[in-house]
Design goal:
- The protein is of the alpha+beta class.
- It is built from 4 helices and 9 strands.
């Protein structure tokens, strides 16, 4: 897994990257009550706002970590947003994307660097 400074995790599955938020991020949000996901087929650029997460504390945006196309979304989150708190790095993935450039993943933190980043 790779990690962003925005507390997203990225996991490669063949030529697709699965994206979710870290346990640290889910703990900071508190109880998640709503998740708005992008549509499959959407072309995104790094930094585009593509998901909205609402919790009892606040609303947060998930930004596209890289350029590419959303190829699948986790529809289960719409019916069960609490999964984000229960299993943030497993069942609660947000979307899968095909990247314009897979080597762009090299610029992200590994788990040790992310752990140091969050203190």
């Amino acid at each position: 897994m790779k990690f962003t400074q925005d507390h997203e995790w990225l996991k490669t599955e063949g030529d697709v990257v699965v994206v979710g938020i870290t346990k640290h991020a889910s703990e900071q949000l508190g109880d998640v009550v709503f998740v708005e996901l992008p549509e499959a087929g959407t072309e995104v650029s790094k930094g585009d706002e593509i998901c909205v997460i609402e919790s009892v504390k606040a609303a947060s945006d998930i930004m596209a970590p890289l350029d590419g196309e959303i190829v699948e979304v986790n529809d289960e989150l719409a019916d069960n947003p609490g999964l984000v708190n229960e299993d943030p790095t497993g069942k609660a993935w947000f979307f899968k994307m095909k990247l314009a450039d897979m080597t762009a993943l090299d610029g992200f933190m590994d788990e040790a660097a992310y752990t140091k980043f969050i203190g």
